C-alpha cells in the first residue's frame, strides 16, 4: 500500500516522539511491503518563530495533499502565562481541526498489568480498565463565537451544537460500542445546559437503532468521580468537546502515564493521529520522553488504512515491552530506557517473532540494540 503522510512534529518533545513513530512505520513498511512517503510541515510555536503564524498556509496544503497526518505536540510555556497574547501555538491545532473538519477524536485508555502499581489509584479499582472516549472535536465552546465587551470588562465563549454534529460522532461511538462490550456512556450536563439536553435527546433517538447497546447517561461532575471510582466499568464514552478534553486527561492518570495514550482525530476526508500529551518542555531534547503514545497513534493510523495485522503487531509488541518494563522515566524513574531506545527495541521486536527473543539476554546488553 502506498500512502502519503504529513508529519507535523510541532513543539517541545513533539519532534523526538514523531521520530520514533516514523521509525516504527518504516519497519512496518519494510516488513509488509508498503510505501509510506513523508512530508514535513511546521505548526505551533515553531511555526510562529519561523513565520509569525502557528498554522502557515503551506502546512494546510501539505495536510490536504496527504492521506493522513502524524502530529507531535503543541505549546510553549512562553505563551501560557500571557493572556494578552494574540497569537498562540494552540491556534495552530485548533485551526487545523477546523480546516480539516476533524470531528471525532478517539482516545482509548487501557491499563497494563505490569504498570498497575504505577497508577496513583488503587490496583483493585483500575484493574481491567479498557475504555475509549469519543470526543466531539469540531464544535461546542471551542469554536463558538467568542469575544469581549467594548469596555473589556466582560467576555463570552458561546457553546453551540447542531443535531447533525451530534449525530455523526454518536453513530461512530455506537458502532464502536457494538463491536466492543456493548455499553455507551453519554457524559453531559443536561441538568444545566441546553446543548447538553440536545445531546441527550439526539443520543436517545439514535440509541433505538442500536438495541444491543446499553446506554448510560452521566452528568459530567458525577462522571469525573465515577471515572476514578470505577474506571473498569466504562466501555465507550461519548461526549462533547470541552468535557472530552477534561475527562481524557483525567482518564490518562488511570494508566500511570499520559505518555501512553494515543488518539485519532477522524475527519471527513483526512484524519490526524497524535499522542494526547502536550509538548512537555521540561524534558524536550533530552531523549527522555515517552514515545509510546505516538507509536500507538501510528497503530491507529494503520488501522484506519485497513492494515489491521500491522496495527495488531505494533500493539502486541508494545504490550510485550511494557510487560518487560522496557519503559521511559515517566513510568520508572530508577530503571528506564530512553525515548529513542524504545523505538529501537520495538523496531527490533517488529522484525522478529516476540517468542523468539531472549529478553534476559537483552537486559544483559547482549543484543546490539541495548
Ligand atoms: C488536546 C489539547 C488541545 C485541546 C489544546 C492543545 C488546544 O489539550 O488535544 O486535548 O484543548 O483540545
Ligand atoms: Mn487536552
Write a concise synopsis of the structure shown.
With 370 residues, the protein is an alpha/beta fold.
Count of helical segments? 14
Bound molecules: 3-isopropylmalic acid, manganese (II) ion
CATH topology of the largest domain: Isopropylmalate Dehydrogenase
Distance between the termini: 32 Å
Under the CATH scheme, which class of the largest domain? Alpha Beta
Query: What is the CA-based Rg, rounded?
Result: 21 Å
The run of helices and strands is: EHEHHEHHEHEEEHEHEHEHEEHHHH
Largest beta sheet: what is the strand line-up? 2-1-3-12-11-4-5-10-8-9
Structural class, judged by helices and strands? alpha/beta
Q: What is the percent of helical residues? A: 40-55%
Which segments are poorly predicted (pLDDT under 50) over 5 or more consecutive residues?
366-370
Number of strands: 12
Strand portion: 15-25%
Task: Label the overall shape.
Answer: globular
Compute the number of structural domains. Answer: 2
The main pleated sheet reads as: 10 strands, mixed
Tell me the CATH architecture of the largest domain: 3-Layer(aba) Sandwich
Let me know the average pLDDT.
94
Amino acid at each position: 500500500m502506498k500512502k502519503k503522510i504529513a508529519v507535523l512534529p510541532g513543539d517541545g518533545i513533539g519532534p523526538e516522539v514523531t521520530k520514533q513513530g516514523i521509525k516504527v512505520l518504516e519497519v512496518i513498511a519494510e516488513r509488509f511491503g508498503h510505501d509510506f512517503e513523508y512530508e514535513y510541515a511546521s505548526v505551533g510555536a515553531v511555526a510562529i518563530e519561523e513565520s509569525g503564524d502557528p498554522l502557515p498556509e503551506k502546512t494546510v496544503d501539505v495536510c490536504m495533499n496527504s492521506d493522513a497526518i502524524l502530529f507531535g505536540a503543541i505549546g510553549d510555556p512562553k505563551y501560557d502565562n500571557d493572556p494578552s497574547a494574540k497569537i498562540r501555538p494552540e491556534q495552530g491545532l485548533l485551526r487545523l481541526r477546523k480546516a480539516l473538519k476533524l470531528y471525532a477524536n478517539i482516545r482509548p485508555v487501557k491499563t497494563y498489568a505490569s504498570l498497575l502499581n504505577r497508577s496513583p489509584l488503587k490496583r483493585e479499582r483500575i484493574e481491567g480498565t479498557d475504555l475509549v472516549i469519543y470526543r466531539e472535536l469540531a464544535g461546542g465552546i471551542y469554536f463558538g463565537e467568542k469575544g469581549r465587551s467594548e469596555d473589556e470588562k466582560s467576555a463570552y465563549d458561546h457553546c453551540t451544537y447542531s443535531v447533525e454534529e451530534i449525530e455523526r460522532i454518536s453513530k461512530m461511538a455506537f458502532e464502536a460500542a457494538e463491536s466492543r462490550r456493548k455499553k455507551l456512556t453519554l457524559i453531559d450536563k443536561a441538568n444545566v445546559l441546553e446543548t447538553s439536553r440536545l445531546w441527550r435527546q439526539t443520543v436517545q433517538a439514535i440509541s433505538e437503532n442500536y438495541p444491543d447497546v446499553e446506554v448510560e447517561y452521566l452528568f459530567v461532575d458525577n462522571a469525573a468521580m465515577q471515572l476514578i471510582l470505577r474506571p473498569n466499568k466504562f466501555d465507550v464514552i461519548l461526549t462533547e468537546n470541552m468535557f472530552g478534553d477534561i475527562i481524557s486527561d483525567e482518564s490518562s492518570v488511570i494508566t500511570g502515564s499520559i505518555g501512553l495514550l494515543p488518539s485519532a482525530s477522524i475527519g471527513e476526508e483526512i484524519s490526524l493521529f497524535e499522542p494526547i500529551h502536550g509538548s512537555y518542555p521540561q524534558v524536550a531534547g533530552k531523549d527522555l520522553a515517552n514515545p509510546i503514545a505516538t507509536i500507538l497513534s501510528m497503530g491507529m493510523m494503520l488501522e484506519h488504512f485497513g492494515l489491521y495485522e500491522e496495527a495488531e503487531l505494533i500493539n502486541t509488541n508494545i504490550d510485550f515491552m511494557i510487560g518487560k518494563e522496557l519503559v521511559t522515566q515517566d513510568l520508572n524513574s530508577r530503571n528506564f530506557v530512553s525515548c529513542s531506545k524504545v523505538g529501537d527495541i520495538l523496531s527490533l521486536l517488529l522484525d522478529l517473532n516476540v517468542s523468539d527473543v531472549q529478553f534476559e539476554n537483552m537486559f544483559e546488553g547482549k543484543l546490539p540494540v541495548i
